[in-house]
Amino acid sequence: MKKLMAITVILIMTAAFISAKGVNTMNKTAIFAGGCFWCMEGPFEAEKGVIDVRAGYTGGSTKNPSYEEVSTGSTGHVEAIKVVYDPKKVSYERLLEIFWHQIDPTDAKGQFADKGSQYVTAVFYLDEEQKKAAEKSKAELEKSGMFKKPIVTSIREASEFYDAEEYHQDYYKTNPFHYGMYKKGSGREAFLKNTWKDEKKPDLKKSLTAIQYKVTQECGTEPPFKNEYWDNHKEGIYVDVVTGEPLFSSLDKYDSGTGWPSFTKPIDKASVIEKEDKSDFMTRVEVKSKKGNSHLGHVFEDGPKPTGQRYCINSAALRFIPKEDLYKEGYGEYIKLFNQ
Q1: How far apart are the first and last CA of the chain?
Q2: How many domains does the chain have?
Q3: Is 0.90 topped by the overall pTM?
Q4: Do 260 and 176 have their domain in common?
Q5: Exactly one of 272, 312, 313, 317 is catalytic; which is it?
Q6: 276 phi-psi bin (left φ>0, alpha ψ -120 to 50, beta other)
Q7: How confident is the model at residue 5 (pLDDT cuts 50, 70, 90)?
Q8: Three-state DSSP class for residue 35
Q9: Average pLDDT score, the chain
Q10: Residue 140, domain CATH
C-alpha cells in the first residue's frame, strides 16, 4: 500500500511539474476555412511556433463526414484546417494575418475555381478572445482598402472538427506536382501573387535533406551504389524531388553498372533541359528539370538501343511513385504507360 501511495504521489507531482513548465498544456488551437485545405496547410506550417496543422471538415452537423460527402455541399461542413500553436512563440493575431494572405475574402460563393458552400471562407473562434481578435482583424482589413469589394469571410463559433482522410494531409508535400498544378490552375497562385507582393519563396534548405539540396541546388553528385534508387526494380515513375514534375519511368530504367539510376530517355523530352557542362575538367551534358531547374545528373551517348543514351541521374534528385500509387498521388494520367 505504501509503495502504491508513493507511486501516486510521484505521478501527481510529475503532472504538476509538467503543467507548471507549460509542456503540452499551454498550446492553443485555431481553426480557419480558406477553400481547398491543400492550399492552407503550408503557409501555417512554415510559421515558427506552429506545432501541427491538420486538414479537415467543420461547421456542419454530419458526424465523421468523408471527403465524398463534404464535396457534395450537402453536409453543412466546410474544408478547413486546425492549427495547434504555441502562443509564446506566435500570436493568434499573426495567424489571422497569415490566413488573410491565403484567400480572397470577397468571394461569397467559394474560393477561386472551387465553388460551393463547402469552400467558403471563415474564422472559427474557440473563445471570446479569439472572436474579438478576429473581428478586429477583419475590420482593419476592410478599413485598409486592400479590396474594393466587401469582406464576406464569416466569423463563427467553432464546432466539432473532423480530420480529413490521411491522403489529404500535407498534400503540398506528398504531391507537390499535382498540388502546384492545382494551385496555379485554380487561379489562387496568381491572385495571391498580385495581391500580396511580399509573398516569400519556400526555403529549400528546410524542406530538403542535405544531400538532396547539395545535388539539386549545388550540382552535387551522390556516391555510386550508396543511393536510394540505383537498384530499384519496382514499376512506377520518378519525379523531381523539389517540384514533383514527372521525369522518368521505370519502363526506361536499366542497370548500367555505374551505381546510379540510369534511363534511356525521359518520359517527355520537354520536361528536361540539357546543356553543356565543363566542370571538373570534363565536357559533359548536364540534365536539369525544366520547371524546377533542379540539377538531376548527366546524359551520355553510351546507352543501349533504341536511343543509345544513358541518363545518369542522382537518386537524391528524384522521388519514386509506385505504379499502384499513381492515382492516389495525383499522377493517374501516367498509369497508361504501364497498361500498353
Answers
A1: 73
A2: 2
A3: no
A4: no
A5: 312
A6: beta
A7: low
A8: coil
A9: 90
A10: 3.30.1060.10
- Say whether both 56 and 188 belong to one domain: yes
- Residue 22: is its pLDDT beyond 50? no
Strand order in the sheet with 78-85: 154-157, 121-125, 28-34, 78-85, 50-58, 161-163
Among the options 30, 33, 36, 53, which is catalytic?
A: 36
Of the two residues 244 and 111, the one the predictor is more confident about is: 111
Is 219 a residue of the active site?
no
Predicted confidence band of residue 7 (pLDDT cuts 50, 70, 90): very low
Nearest to 81 by CA among 119, 30, 116: 30
57, β-bridge pairs: 79, 162
Residue 326 class from Cβ within 10 Å (0-12 exposed, 13-18 middle, 19+ buried)? buried
Full domain range(s) for residue 332: 204-338
Q: How far apart are CA 30 and CA 92, in angstroms?
A: 8
3 state SS of 64: coil
- Per the annotation, the verdict on 36 as an active-site residue is yes
